[in-house]
Amino acid sequence: MVLLILLAIALVIFLSWAAVNSSKMDQEEKERQERKKEYDSWKRNMETRWKAYDEARDAALDELEAKWGKCDKDIYVTSGDVFSLEDRVYAFEKAEKIVLGGTVYDFKDIIGFSLVNKSKTVFNTYATVKSGKDLGGMIMGGVAGKMIAGNAGAVIGALAADDDCDCETDYDFEEENEYKIYVNVDSISSPTVILDFGTLEEDAYEAANLLNVITRRNSL
């Protein structure tokens, strides 16, 4: 009799645990599906925005080439949500035209330039998930983040911690360079054009080399 009572109690406990566990699993699956839905929506939105951006960029370049012939140099500067001529440096050698900061200049209008390299300290954080964490259908084996450290070494920002995450964290510091080109043009009202390349070192030096060629030709 006692054994039957114990078995009944055990069965009740098991069924209660199973019901709670099933409810938790259903909730986790629901949350996973919601995260996946949000991710898919974000992805579609980004694809639509970038398609519109590319189409606007191509249309703008086609219009410029219709005026001045083939574009001989196309250098990436930056990009926003909507394409602007400020996003590129375009050079047309035959027409001796260059687009800087969204404005068209003749080669002869370029008086000089300076390339400025400003360094900053970046604090990198790494979280390696040991057990694997399901995020929107994707298993994240590692998460990395960056924060800027000021001159005094103080870190700006905060790390988001997940209490349920079985992970190990690590960090390091690195120097990161940002590049700007200040172009002196023949204009009383707006004598300086600033090209902000951010961390794009190769593009910044490519633009500087282009401007060097133009200023050299202007001096001949």
Counting DSSP E segments of at least 2 residues, the number of strands comes to: 10
Q: Report mean pLDDT, rounded to a whole number.
A: 76
Measure the end-to-end span: 110 Å
Order of helices and strands, N to C? Answer: HEEEEEEEEEEH
Strand order of the largest sheet: 1-2-3-4
Percent of sequence in beta strands: 25-35%
Tally of individual helices: 2
| Oligomeric description of these chains | single chain
Which secondary-structure class do the elements indicate? alpha+beta
Shape label: elongated
- Roughly how much helix do the residues carry, as a percent range? 25-40%
The largest pleated sheet is described as:
4 strands, antiparallel
Report Rg.
29 Å
Unreliable runs? 129-163
